[in-house]
Structure formats: structure tokens, C-alpha cells
Write a structure and sequence with these properties.
By secondary structure, the protein is an all-alpha fold. 76% of the residues lie in helices and 0% in strands. It has helices at 7-38, 46-72, 79-93, 103-120, 123-147.
């Protein structure tokens, strides 16, 4: 691994936190789509509702995967994509209370994005993002050094 240290130590320390945000994002999006299908889109025909759920799944997965991929590539600003994802899930779930959804599902759907935001703000996740940004900088320097013209002998 660039900068010393082993990949195994890095993964042992940071992989659970990284995967935790991905799983919480998946569960948050799933809970949002379940609540949306049962509340916002209740009056729609079942085939239309299924289309909306499928399209919503594609959009949510795309945003979550791209955000986490950019975080893994060392882009510091990408954490705002993932945080925005969790905030959007929370903002879309909160108004469903007016439709009288199942309270357990509603509580679960509110709790998951909040846990995702808390995990993004955890010390270990911030530490991981800092190390990934350092690795990106070191990789960039190595590439620049490799491209630099060398004197011929």
C-alpha cells in the first residue's frame, strides 16, 4: 500500500465502517421505497407503483454507489453525496407520518438514515477518509514523477 502499512491492517480497521455506511444506505433506501409505495403512491395502479419503485431503486443505488466509490478513491467532497443521500431519505420519509404508516416501519425508516449520518460522522470514518485522501495525493505524486522527463545517459 502507498505510504507504508499493509492493506490487511487498513481493511481490518476501516472496512466495517465503510461497509456499514453502504448497508445503512441500502436499508434506508429500501425503507423509503417501501413507505413511498404504501403512502405516496398508494392510489396508483400496481404496475405504475412497481415502475416507480424500480426507478427509485436505480436512482438511489446509483447515487449511493457513486458516492462511496468516490470516497474510496480519495475524493473528500464525496462524503457530501452520501450525507445528502441520507438526508434525502430522511426528508422523504418524515412526511409519510401523515398517511398513518405502520409505526415500526416508520421508526425503522427514520432511524436508519440517522444512523448512517452518525456513522459518516464517526471518528473512524473521518480517519479513513483522511487516509484515503493521503493515498490519493501520494498516488498523484508518483504518477507525476513517472511522467516527468528524465535525462538520457
Amino acid at each position: 500500500m502507498i505510504g507504508g502499512g499493509s492493506m490487511k491492517q487498513f481493511l481490518v480497521r476501516y472496512f466495517p465502517v465503510f461497509m456499514g455506511t453502504i448497508f445503512l444506505g441500502c436499508f434506508s433506501g429500501s425503507a423509503l421505497l417501501v413507505l413511498s409505495a404504501g403512502t405516496y403512491w398508494r392510489a396508483l395502479a400496481p404496475s405504475t407503483r412497481t415502475d416507480y419503485v424500480g426507478l427509485g431503486t436505480l436512482v438511489l443505488v446509483l447515487v449511493l454507489v457513486l458516492g462511496n466509490l468516490l470516497i474510496a478513491r480519495g475524493r473528500a467532497w464525496a462524503v457530501w453525496w452520501v450525507a445528502g443521500y441520507f438526508l434525502a431519505c430522511l426528508a422523504a420519509v418524515l412526511p409519510t407520518f401523515a398517511y398513518g404508516p405502520h409505526q415500526g416501519v416508520y421508526l425503522f425508516a427514520v432511524l436508519l438514515p440517522l444512523l448512517g449520518l452518525a456513522l459518516l460522522n464517526s471518528k473512524r470514518h473521518r480517519e479513513m477518509r483522511g487516509k484515503l485522501v493521503d493515498i490519493r495525493r501520494q498516488r498523484k505524486l508518483i504518477i507525476q514523477a513517472a511522467k516527468a522527463p528524465r535525462p538520457r545517459r
